[in-house]
Amino acid sequence: MTELTYIAPRGAAPVNHGRTTASWTLVWLLVAGVLVAGIGFAVDRAPVLIAGLVIAVGGLVAGAVMRRLGMGQPTQVSAARDWYTD
Q1: pLDDT interval class at 18 (50, 70, 90)
Q2: Structural domain total, the chain
Q3: Residue 43 pLDDT exceeds 60
Q4: CA spacing 20 to 30 A to 14: which of 5, 22, 67, 76?
Q5: 4 near 76, Cβ under 8 Å?
Q6: Chain mean position to CA 76
Q7: Looking at the domain assignment, is residue 61 inside a domain?
């Protein structure tokens, strides 16, 4: 029988499950932008369609900037406690 070797991560994952200010801002601005763009497409109004696309791109930029400012998912594993080696 083959033995399986498991390698534990270096630390526990963040407990926020990705629910950060940056991610919520990104999601809601993308939803709003796509909704506005969809309405503009449906009623054949180019300015409304372009406004929706601008909102969506603004959401991408806002999410990236907020993540860089520390409002996103942590990128470094906390060294305070290693749950797998306790």
Answers
A1: confident
A2: 1
A3: yes
A4: 5
A5: no
A6: 16
A7: yes
Residue whose C-alpha is closest to residue 29's, from 51, 9, 45, 10: 51
Whole-prediction pTM = 0.69
Distances (CA, A) of 47 to 31, 32, 42, 44, 55: 18, 15, 12, 9, 12
Q: Whose structure tokens read 């998912």?
A: 73
User: Of the candidates 34, 17, 14, which has an alpha carbon nearest to the alpha carbon of residue 26?
Assistant: 34
Q: Which tokens hold the place of 36?
A: 């506005």
Phi, psi of 49 (to 5 degrees): -60, -45
* Angstrom distance (rounded) from CA 72 to CA 13: 14
Range of the domain at 41: 21-71
